[in-house]
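In the previous chapter we treated chains in isolation. Here, by contrast, the input contains three separate entities that must be folded as one system, with a combined length of 1026 residues.
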Amino acid sequence: MRTNALKRHLTGYAFIGPFIIGFLVFTAIPIFASLYLSFTNYDLFTTPRWLGLDNYKKMFTADPKYTQSLKVTMLYVFGGVPLRLAFALFVAMLLNTAAKAIGLYRTIYYLPSIIGGSVAVSIMWRNLFGDEGAINSILEILGIGGVRWFAEPLAALWMLIFLSIWQFGSSMLIFLAGLKNIPASLYEAAGVDGANAVHRFFKITLPMLSPIILFNAIMQTIGAFMTFVPAYIISKGEGGPMDGTLLYSLYLFRRAFVYFEMGYASAMAWIMLLIVAFISVLLFASAKYWVHYESKGGN
Amino acid sequence: MKKWIMLIMAFTLVFTLAACGTNNNGGILTNNSGGAGTAEGTNSGGDNTGGEKEAVTLRMAWWGGQPRNDYTLEVIKMYEEKNPHVTIEPEYANWDDYWKKLAPQAAANELPDIIQMDLGYITQYGTKNQLADLTPFLNNGIDVSNIADTVVNGGKLGDKLYGFNAGVNALQIHYDPEMLKKIGMDSIPDDWTWDDYKELAKKAGDAGIFFDTGQKPEVFFSYYLRQNGQKLYSADGTQLGYDNDQLFIDYFGMTQQAVLDGGSPTPDFSAQIKGIEDDPVVKEQGISVWQWSNQFIGLQQVANRPLEMHPLPGPNVKEGMFLKPSMFWSVSENSNNKEEAVKFIDFFINDIEANKLIKGERGVPVSSVVKEALKPLLTPEQVKVFDFITWAEENSTQMDPPDPIGAAEVMNLFKTYDEQMKFNKITPEEAAKKFREEANAVLAKNKQ
Amino acid sequence: MALKKTVKPLLYHAVVIVLSIIMIYPVLWLVMSSFKPSNTIFITAESLIPSPWVWENYVIGWQGMGGNTFGVFIKNSLVIVVLSTLGAVFSSALIAFGFARLQFFGKTFWFAMMMMLMMLPHDVVLIPQYIMFAKLEWLNSIKPIVVPNYFGVPFFIFLIIQFIRTIPQEMDEAATIDGCGKFRLFFRIILPLVTPALATAAIFSFYWRWEDLLGPVLYLNKPSLYTVSMALKMFLDNETVSNWGAMFAMSAVSLLPVLAVFFAFQKYIVEGISTSGLK
């Protein structure tokens, strides 16, 4: 019996072994190094000097730009992620049919996500939201009047959020794969019972898809916290106007590689880790109320 | 569990020290002979006695676009033909990527032998033991007989020369005379002052065109301070160098007023300019641009109609004006082949044939001999730039020393408050006070 | 009834096509701009159709720089991307199976570690990692970019875990009764069932590696090793005039491999064999 248990553990480690080896060899040391550095004044070039908790203290007491970046990022994450997920799920369901030319449609809908961080996108996006751009023209027609997207910090942030919604391709693809994994027999059975589309969606699609929704929710949240490229290319690396698009990662990057304060940047990174981990744990904990697994996995 | 954490921490500590230690650590940690697995152990440097020179491999890094990459490779080829024992391995990247690449290389003691350096970074790299002092190589490797002292000293920090000036730029205003006529003036008067500027900006605003596209605050405020006998940073770099906030209020009050008058765009307009092709001057919506002399060539090329250049407003133009190194050539402190690296820099600076390929693309050549030799090969707009620099050599004063560490953060403060003033969210008086407080807090970190 | 049958698909296609236009417009703009003379791209930014049509951007762009044509950069990117993707998908599937289906000591700890890897901003581990690869003498090679993929990519591991957990446990039990070991269970039963997830991972991995800039910028020094993402940025110049035309032209070219891979793999998402295996 004992040898059986041992064999069970060993089999488990055989499977996840590559991860553990990779972790220990490539990432464990750099991660702990960054934790150590977060208590120092490391400037990349000279030997770090121990500062204790100074970096952490400064962040919350003497760095208004830090608080600003935290605020902007929270808005970006909690404004953007739910919208992006909802849109992705909507389109995935729209494309989850055997309609003609469906492969082409899927490709088209995925396109925005593969030109992602390119310069072309930033130029396009700036054009669309420009003072005389398409968006403002539409707003004029609707009688709302134009918005100065590059002057108002909040408007500029929304410009970024819209960009993230438009690039919903990766979540859509994962939803699509998830939808494909739902056995057709379930829908057939429901069809016999005479359930309508709304009913089918809530009784079959959502529960069966819930592990994938959990995945997307967690990954998109983490991804949104880490967002760097759009803010960098749209604001030319500065996070303007008036720090309205100074996302956390952008500010962290500036601290690390423009101001050469890697110690401080490391401290910022670990606070970010705590925040993201906290939100992820909440999401995982909530899973038992709404996520439906076909198998017990036990994490 | 605790033991385990201690173990990891100890391990990390040892690792970090090993990794991050600079050359002053001494001992086993400084042995960095294998440069990125490229510079093989064949190059011991120096010891060149006996017929055949020992083979040397130099790594050389620069930022730039495609044309620069192409001609620089030709210069390298030319040098390698003349010096068969030298192999130069180029490493080039776009500006953004270049600095991303350089920082880790410095941290790992893997910097290339020859590094193209920028004024904004030279203090960071220089004072933290990454760059070699070039003073011993002057006229002993690098021929400076045809180069003005003020030009050579541009790369000086304290008594050490961390970069050799690769070319010269100066501040100017570039304008379209046809557009200027729209506000009733044929050309900018020779002895114009900031008061004239205020008036012109107002007139342009009234005429519904832009006079300019705004000024980079850290550059032009610095010029303004110099005109008034002040400096942006104190000599030791631990605080601001001017003590009268009235100068801040006057300068930023003026640029703020230009925006309010409509003669200068709000920052959100500037943020939407996508490139030089999109500039108001090019699109005939604006009269002028404040920028560096070398940028005239691109602007002229894109606008494709006669543009003019002019010195900045007075009074005290000479006190305000300075020659700015467009970029530097530096040698890394951990290079094993400093002599050979310096020889190549000398070739790049002084060789006439090489400069016929370079054609002043990295700024107006610093050597007077090279400058003369190039003249016949230049386009008319290049000749204008060269002539302006010649004029500026006589009508300028020594540049301020390179910005202290922390200047990047101060520049960001400038940008923040400049934006707020131009959006009329803060008065120049308030901004002056806040800026001083915050900038001094940043610079105070340099006190050790 | 008959009317409803024709109206519904029509309506469907109408909605899908209208949305498509919003989706595709920027890409169209990019492609069309690549046929405009470089100096007119911004002046004519509002109109989609180039006039005149020119090919020169493609000719100039393809010449590349420093004696390396754009073909060299594409080849370099392909080598990195294909090697990385193979490693990432296979190893992640293996690891995911361990997490999703096996019970063993320390599992929660390792899972938490894996999640943590995704939550720490990469900027701060970059320097220590670089120093480590320098000590391994891996600089100036594709090894630092490719090799870590063979030890699992957290995003894909987590993705495949979630997919495996939607497969009923009875499948395993049936297989185990048939005398299947865990490895055979993985290869014979689970792997085919998660094909849609594997295809998704392959598409992502391909695209991410293809557009990745930081890895190549940090670790590749020799211009003949440069990738597409690095080369594209070199058409831009913040000091003088950028070659926008060539940049757009080569951006358009560089979309093709990604599109081809997407088109090829999305089929597996569509035709996921999974349903056939289930009752």
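The mean pLDDT of chain A is 88. Chain A touches chain C through 99 residues (CB under 8 Å). Compare these points with the single-chain example from earlier in the chapter.
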